[in-house]
Amino acid sequence: MFNIEEQTMSISLKVRGAIERSSWIRRMFEEGAALIAEYGAENVYDFTLGNPSVEPPAAFRRELRRMAEKPDLGMHRYMNNAGYEETRASVARHIEETSGIPVNSKHIVMTCGAGGALNVTLKTILNPGEEVIILTPFFVEYKFYADNHGGTTKEVWTNPETFQPDIAAIEAAITHNTRAIIINSPNNPTGAVYSAETLTALGRMLDRKQGELGSTIYTISDEPYARLAFDGNSVPPVFRYIRNAVLVTSHSKDLALPGERIGYLAANPSMDDVALFMEGAVFCNRVLGFVNAPALMQRLVAKLQSESVDVTEYQEKRDILYNHLTGLGFEVVKPGGGFYFFPKSPMDDDVEFVRQAQKHNILLVPGSGFGAPGYFRIAYCVEMGIIERSLPAWEKLAKDIGLA
Ligand code: PLP
């Protein structure tokens, strides 16, 4: 129980606690901002934010201009909470083409980004106190999102050699209280792309456990980086491998539109009670207060399902940094997609290592921010000039800490 004095403070104790626990992250950003003010943005190598440096594809501007010049009557009004039929049909066609699974507009809800889709999904499925398995290292918002809807999270480490899910460890973590598992490929923060073998093994294990427990365990597949796969590979489509799967994604990364808040969720048509799940998701999209995904963006992305930013640009950046860092002695699992590295911290204390890097104007996020102390994250979705100018600073840092 809280004491009266605490209870009468202005904001909720839970939110206050969350702010206090993450205050060190804010402090690091403030220190980074001070460095930028002192040395100028071109002389500070800011690898902290997953904010794409590239611009949306040309087709985006073309469609935007066309829409402004020839507006449809009523195009800014309220709509069905699931989103426009035309957009959902276009998204469903794209999923069907890439997965071979017959999906239709009834299986799609347009949302305010992947963050919106994750919250809608968790609200739809969670009873109070139920568990969501998350795979370490993880996107930290998962913990807050599960908590938003009365759930708790259970952390299960991925295989540290590959950052692929550890199926036996996930199986050991499943109980009667497990309602969902969140997977994320290509992964933030590791850049790992889950293989078809991993997804096959996960799907089989989940089918067996669901049979044993007599329950539905949803796999929430968070895929905003799905079109950013390297070396000519593509991300294996989750619906082929996992029956009770909900795909959540957005166009924040593949069309470089994170500020426009446009994404969707899609249910595998073979999911248990799929019609009821969809009805629940449309209801939750409404009562969470989003009401629907932004109208203008829905009309645009309906036309852009086969477009993507230039993946080769990210691949080139990965290669330059990967070769440089491994050459200096950093231990890095080579990412198969996305725009992050998650190297081992050469110092036991990852927060201290990040501070050492700051001295060379290199801004990083400690692994502790992803539930994985002993590592650090590099977001390389920055301009090529920053990567190139940072290379000598990495060398000095490596020398300073006795690595090279
Ligand atoms: N999931 C992961 C793994 C992310 O990295 C992000 C954003 O960085 C999101 C979800 C949220 O994306 P959105 O901008 O679509 O809400």
Structural commentary:
It is a single chain. By secondary structure, this protein is of the alpha/beta class. It has 2 domains: 145 residues, Aspartate Aminotransferase, domain 1 (Alpha-Beta Complex), CATH 3.90.1150; 225 residues, Aspartate Aminotransferase, domain 2, CATH 3.40.640. Helices cover 41% and strands 13% of the residues. The protein contains 14 helices and 12 strands. The strands form 3 sheets. A 7-stranded mixed beta sheet has the order 2-8-7-6-5-3-4, sandwiched between helices. Strands 9-12-11 form a 3-stranded antiparallel beta sheet, covered by helices on one side. A two-stranded parallel ribbon has the order 1-10. Strand 3, helix 7 and strand 4 form a beta-alpha-beta unit. Helix 6 packs across helix 7, helix 6 packs across helix 10 and helix 12 packs parallel to helix 14. It is globular, with a radius of gyration of 22 Å. 44% of the residues are buried. The protein binds pyridoxal-5'-phosphate. Pyridoxal-5'-phosphate binds next to helix 6.
